[in-house]
């Protein structure tokens, strides 16, 4: 479980294809604090640390993860937002994030907001998925590349988020441009409500 509050970004230093899986080797400031089998969110994707050597660690992404997320697009030198799992004795500063990316979206617009930046993201419209809670609501929460954000101006398949300078500086939002593919995780609370509504309708 995560909160969507990014600790920093890790840098990809090596990529190794192993049949349908990909091993990513990364480096970050807290590598020495990691342990084998520990869960770390990478661009919002929960991955398991499988090895550690010096200031580098390795995580493995399987085909299902690569098909559903932007991890398969990573290159050596890319920055990846990382967050270790949430401590249960602390404040929930973002929102409840599972680390289970639902799908990708594409940045279709960027707009200066007198110091901050509005990003508009678009994802494939799918009414069946929307009925299951895969949608955004105004002032609701959404996770973009692992970052907990507040939704602005949602439509059936687009939404905006406002990125303040601090977030821009400390996450890989600084590298997002029009055309960049990002990972989305929709709010788990919305999914549960949608599912409950479906079950209620079935039982009527």
Word description of this protein:
This protein has 204 residues and is α+β, with helices and mostly antiparallel strands. The protein has helices at 63-68, 127-131, 165-170, 188-203, and strands at residues 8-18, 21-27, 39-42, 45-53, 56-61, 79-84, 103-113, 116-122, 141-144, 147-150, 158-163, 181-186. The protein is globular. The model has no long low-confidence stretch (mean pLDDT 94).
What portion of residues belong to β-strands? 35-45%
How much helicity do the residues have?
10-25%
Instruction: Label the overall shape.
Output: globular
**Number of contiguous helices:** 4
What distance separates the N and C termini?
A: 34 Å
| Poorly predicted parts | none
Largest sheet: 6 strands, antiparallel, barrel
Query: Structural class of the helix and strand makeup?
Result: alpha+beta
Rg over CA atoms: 17 Å
The string of secondary-structure elements, in order, is EEEEEHEEEHEEEHEH
Overall average pLDDT = 94
* Total strand segments: 12
Strand order of the largest sheet: 1-2-5-4-3-6
List keywords for this structure.
204 residues, single chain, 6-stranded antiparallel β-barrel, alpha+beta, 16% helix, 6-stranded antiparallel beta sheet, 12 strands
Summarize the structure.
The chain is α+β, with helices and mostly antiparallel strands and 204 residues long. The protein contains four helices and twelve strands.
